[in-house]
Amino acid sequence: xxxxxxxxxxxxxxxxxxxxxxxxxxxxxxxxxxxxxxxxxxxxxxxxxxxxxxxxxxxxxxxxxxxxxxxxxxxxxxxxxxxxxxxxxxxxxxxxxxxxxxxxxxxxxxxxxxxxxxxxxxxxxxxxxxxxxxxxxxxxxxxxxxxxxxxxxxxxxxxxxxxxxxxxxxxxxxxxxxxxxxxxxxxxxxxxxxxxxxxxxxxxxxxxxxxxxxxxxxxxxxxxxxxxxxxxxx
Length: 234
Prior knowledge:
There is one protein chain. This protein is α/β, with parallel strands linked by helices. The chain is built from ten helices and ten strands. It has one domain (2-232): P-loop containing nucleotide triphosphate hydrolases (Rossmann fold). Strand 7 (155-159), helix 7 (167-182) and strand 8 form a beta-alpha-beta unit. Helix 3 packs parallel to helix 6 (137-149). The radius of gyration is 17 Å and the shape is globular.
């Protein structure tokens, strides 16, 4: 579904990604784990067009999307839930969700999609007129995911969905991520909580200083002694 082939990405003279190659198959949950600054977020930003790659190729559903504008990439079926949630704080919950559906001109379809996300996140329906900046951190994360789902993505990119949230809320968010996947959406997950990410993923990639240094099934990575030592706290 998604293939990155030898992707290099720079921030000015800084080489952030150093020949990244990875693949995500349809209906998988794939996770990228690694230390802060390893290149996890840059990988997602490169995929969705926020940062253009310097070299290499990105293919999504057999189409070359390398270097396309972010707005065009959304139209292909890729949506990003950014690190730090990034909801529009002065807009209501409903307005945020409607912005997520800006490419969909079918009002009835948008209405139907709203009902779908409210089934996933009932609390958002109760907060529909509330200003988003007044929501709790967990509610804002739910809104950020729901807003991305309003774009009807085939591939959902999630960047650090557990950041700053209480363990109980994190467990709830990850249950919802699994449900979204069961309903047919492919997921590429970047997550600092490596144990939690690997517990729901089908396979994982370990990134260090802009390079993929290890890839395997999530089950095998959870058992790997080096992964345990570096990322799982064992």
